[in-house]
Structures are given as structure tokens and as C-alpha cells.
Amino acid sequence: MVNNDYQPVQTPQQDSIDTVSQVTGPVTPPSPTTERMASKKWEIFPGRNKFYCDGRIMMADNISIFYLTVGLIIVTCGLFFGFDSPYLAEHVSAIIPAVAAVLFIFVLSTLFKTSFSDPGVIPRATPDEAADVEKQIDVPSDGTPTYRPPPRTKEITVKGQTIKLKYCFTCKIFRPPRASHCSICDNCVERFDHHCPWVGNCVGKRNYRYFFLFLMSLSLLTIYIFACVLTHLILRSQNSDFLTALKATPASIVEALICFFSVWSVLGLAGFHSYLTASNQTTNEDIKGSWSSKRGQDVANPYSYGSVCNNCFAVVCGPERPSLIDARGMVTPEELKQATESPTRYGTTKTVTPVTVNGPDAQRKSLSATSQNSDSASSISPPPSMVIMDAPPPQITDLTPVNGDTALSVSRTDISMVAASPAYPSVNNTAISGGAVSNHSVDNSNHLLSSRSGSKEEFM
Prior knowledge:
elongated
């Protein structure tokens, strides 16, 4: 029988709505608490650092070795307080564990201060500041137009010494003297010393004193525990043999091994940084030889205070500079807009490697693909660094087949001019023999000619 009951007819729009609701479920309006806008500056910080405790703690991205450092210190001192200190306090003096406790607390406090502090990060330039710096760089001092890129350095004089300020392409600023860009944290740091994975942070102007005190106190603590452990074993071996003493306190063996293998590196670092502090240098400057003898002339350190005592006093007891990034400060609307418009947080550089094909078949396929995409390729203009207006383009003198392949003959003068130019790295590796360019570089030459003259050449 035919069912004559009337059934409601759904429109296509209603059908699509029902289908979407069945697949995705009911649509709920977004809650105001699901998306939270950044309110503190550390939440939109462009570097690779991590912040904890509402921006009070600033560390590097990878801090796994920092946990190893803390673990070694705590485990060694814990074994010492648990197995050696009671015996030494009873048979020698109660001052021994008290001194070890003071050193242990001082070591951890200086370590945490070094690891959790802002090392002296220099804020990056705002778009307006970066544009102003670019204008100052691009405009020549004498007013004459030029097509070569201007130098990205400035020179200042500090106590008679000429210091070059280098331009940072990531931070868009001229770095102050003694500053450098840390590639791990992706920040420019004042008085940059080095990036230390053992403390999980950069070592710079604001935390170098704590790093130096950490090394000195850790050296004393390592030597002190090692000496106390040996004293404990010697005292126990007086009543019995040495092996029996070792069996009675197996934890002392672990402490002695850790202290023995670590004391050499710790003492070496402490001695090296004592030399740097006495001469008021940084590790970066010492490695580069900034103030060493150059070309037979002694270059004096303009940042030295004249004596060892003054340099040590300036480094250890000098005033602590305030943080320039203001991590816990409130975000302004301009800073929030700048952070949301930036697609990436880190300054990265994209490197394009040209692909070279060999053989006549691969050459014809490459040339045919180039001719098919000539319209789209011609609309893409090369970057400014790829164009040198004062160098004439190479002139084609002959186009003859060599061994069945296509070869491009160019005069030696034009090739040497282009090969010497830093704007054409692909020609530097070109094999030039008898004034002819080998077949595997035809694509590169064709691309160079197209980018220089704007004309499209097809080689069949």
C-alpha cells in the first residue's frame, strides 16, 4: 500500500544545517575565558627564553643540563651530610658540617641567581625605530646616490680606542660596546660573556658577578667535601684496614669520585674567570683577542680600571643595572599589535640552494620548464642584494653546440666581473674553460641575464 501521509519537505538550506549539526555538534558561542589576551611583556617576548612565576624567572629554552648541575650538587652534599658529617662532628668538630652547610647554601643561591636572572637582554627595535635606523644607514653622508649596500657598522671612541658597533639584523639595532647576539637564546646581551648550559642561561652584564661567585664557592665546596671525605676514611682506617673503612661508608666512595672528577674542571673555570675578572674582560673578548697584540702593537683594554683590585671590585661589588626588557610590565596596545602581526617569534634566515641538473635530457627538461614558467618567474623581482647596477651584464658572443649540448660563450672580462661579485654566488662555482661556461650552468646564467636585463632568453 502507498503511504498517503503527508511528510514535511526540508529545504536544501535546512538539510545542510542539519548535516553540519550532526557532524560537528551544536555550535556554541566562544566563551570570553577561552582566549586570553597577553597582558605582560614576558608573554609576547620575541626571544627563545622561557619565563616562570609570572615573569620573575627567565631561563633558556633548553635547561636539561641545568637540572644535572643541581642534581650533582644536591646529591653529593646530601650524601656528605648523611654519612660523613655525623662521624666528623662527633670525632673532630661540629664546625665541619656547619661550614659545609654555609657553603652549600651559598652555592645554590648564586647558582639560582645566575640561572633565574635577566643576563642583560637588549630590547629589539620597534618598527618605527627599525625604519629610522634603515633611513640613517641608506642615506649617504655626502648626499651622493650610491647603489652599493652601505656598511652596517658605526665607530665610536672609548678612551682613545676605536670601537666598532655592529648592526644586528635580528634585533634591528646597533649593538652597544661589548654586546653580542646569543644564537641559542636569540637575544642581544649587554657585556655578553658566553652562554652556559650548566646554569641554563646566558652570562652577561646583570648576572656575571653571581656566575663568578658561583664558580669560586663551588670550587671551595668541592675541595672541602673531598678533604673531609678523605679525613673520614683515614680516621676509620686507624681502627681497621682501609678496605673495611670503605665497606663501612660506601657513600664516601661516591662523594670522593664525584669531587675528584669535577674539581679539575671547576678549578679550571674558576681560575680562567679570575683572570678575566682581574683584567675586566669577557670570555667573548678573550677568545676573539680583542685586546691582545695586533700587528706588533699593544692594544690596551679601554674598559680596565687600571689595577687588579679595581677591576675585581667593579665586577663583584659594582651596582646592579636594572633590566631593560621589563618582563613583568604591562603590554601596550602598540606592542600587542606588533606581536600579533609578527608571523614568527624568532629571527630566522631562509637559505635557498640552487639545484643543478646534468646531461642533455635533463638540460632540455629544465629549459622547457623554465620557458613554461617564464611568465610567473618574470613577475618575481630579485631581492635588492641580488642587483648591482654599476656592473654591466655579461654579453653573449656566441651560442654554439658542444658535444650535443648547449654551451654559452661569454667573454672572460664579463665572467670575471660577475664571478667576483658577491651578488652572484652561483657563478663562483662555475667551471670556465676557454671562455665558455659548461652546460650545467646555463640555467644559472639564463636566470642571471633575466634578472639583470629583464629579458627572457630561451636556449633550445
